[in-house]
Design brief:
One of its GO terms (biological process) is response to antibiotic. Residues 137-308 form the Beta-lactamase class A catalytic domain. The chain is of the alpha+beta class. The chain has one domain: DD-peptidase/beta-lactamase superfamily (Beta-lactamase, 3-Layer(aba) Sandwich). It has helices spanning 3-16, 34-45, 79-93, 158-168, 171-181, 183-192, 221-232, 239-249, 315-336, and strands spanning 20-22, 26-27, 30-31, 49-56, 62-66, 72-73, 133-135, 155-157, 199-200, 217-219, 277-285, 288-296, 301-309. The strands form 4 sheets. Strands 1-5-4-13-12-11 form a 6-stranded antiparallel beta sheet. A hairpin with a 2-residue loop joins strand 2 (26-27) and strand 3. Helix 3 packs across helix 8 (239-249). The chain is globular, with a radius of gyration of 20 Å.
Length: 337
């Protein structure tokens, strides 16, 4: 092959490779996140759009980033914004700073100053707002993820609906809460948190027509990683709001992506397990796999967000994306453990 053709092919590969960066910190095996970066690069060369960001949960230092400024479809991750608004209303109406019960302190992140946070799972005495009963209607009905559509109970308290969203990304619970809260309030809350590229755009729909928002939510990896770090530190709205949200998210049962690398029980990881603690939110749609979360270990903590957009034409394409996300999770585990 002529050298000019080799140079052109190499140049084309470099153009589509993810333009990211890693921290220059090193561990015993060399530069951290090396395996994850290599895996994401390989995916990008095959045509997958990769956006990712990881920050140290204590210091806020950016450890890893790939096109983290881009606002891309994130499927169900935008439901976190709804949970934040719900938690803020519970906190404000049931007694700010207590949510109806005392929040005990928690140890600081490894290597960081105390952040004033509470436990990951909050079990306060629920107040009036949290116990407000909401009925489901025919207009709220939607399929796919969630348990409520399979249950007989026609109405549930606000706090239970939030727990269903945290545990199973419940679509029906999402639509019922959005009918109560309103998309405008969720958007206003996101703007007040400084989010410009991360939005919940619509209710959940089985079919999106030409007059509907094209996606459920969009987000940038940098904003999402920063938001989740704020939740971990008790800084999103206030400490009680943050603790309510992290408590709901710690119920999450989807560990099929980045979270699959941490060795946790998908159905029971509300507390530390072998020194590892996690709360996360995933998003799944045709050709989209997305996850944001915080993993904390004995040595450090990482707040992260990763989104993959790919041509979901066959099972190997999907499995390659999931494997790369778990590889990045393995890098995170090595950093925190």
């Amino acid at each position: 092959m002529p050298e000019s053709i080799r140079r052109r092919a190499r140049s084309e590969r470099e153009e589509i490779a993810p333009r990211g960066r890693r921290t220059d910190a090193v561990d015993g095996d060399g530069v951290i996140f090396r395996k994850g970066f290599a895996s994401l690069t390989e995916l990008a060369l095959s045509g997958v759009q990769v956006t990712a960001c990881a920050v140290d949960a204590g210091s806020g230092k950016v450890l890893f980033s790939v096109d983290d400024h881009l606002s891309v479809p994130t499927a169900s991750i935008g439901k976190v914004l709804l949970l934040i608004e719900v938690a803020a209303r519970i906190s404000a109406r049931d007694g700010s700073g207590s949510a109806g019960g005392a929040v005990p302190p928690t140890p600081p992140l490894p290597g960081s100053a105390p952040s004033g946070g509470g436990p990951r799972t909050v079990r306060p005495a629920p107040g009036a707002e949290a116990l407000s009963i909401l009925n489901r209607t025919a207009q709220d009905s939607v399929g796919d993820s969630g348990l409520w559509q399979h249950l007989q109970v026609p109405a549930l308290p606000v706090s239970d609906l939030a727990a269903l969203i945290g545990a199973t990304s419940d679509n029906l619970a999402t639509n019922v809460l959005l009918r109560r809260i309103g998309l405008d309030a969720v958007r206003a809350r996101a703007e007040s948190l400084g989010l410009r590229r991360t939005l919940l755009l619509d209710i959940v729909r089985d079919v999106r027509g030409p007059d509907d928002a094209p996606q459920l939510s969009v987000g940038s990896a940098r904003e999402l990683a920063t938001l989740f770090r704020g939740l971990e530190r008790g800084e999103v709205v206030d400490e009680t709001t943050s603790r309510l949200v992290t408590g709901w998210l710690s119920l999450g049962s989807d560990l099929s992506m980045v979270g699959g690398a941490f060795g946790l029980d998908p159905l029971a990881h509300t507390g530390p397990d072998h020194g590892i603690r996690l709360f996360n939110k995933t998003g799944t749609d045709a050709g989209i796999r997305s996850e944001a979360g915080v993993v904390v270990g004995p040595r450090a903590g990482v707040a992260y967000a990763v989104t993959m957009r790919f041509n979901d034409v066959d099972l190997p394409a999907r499995l390659g994306v999931l494997e790369a996300m778990r590889t990045l999770g393995t890098d995170f585990l090595e950093y925190v453990y």
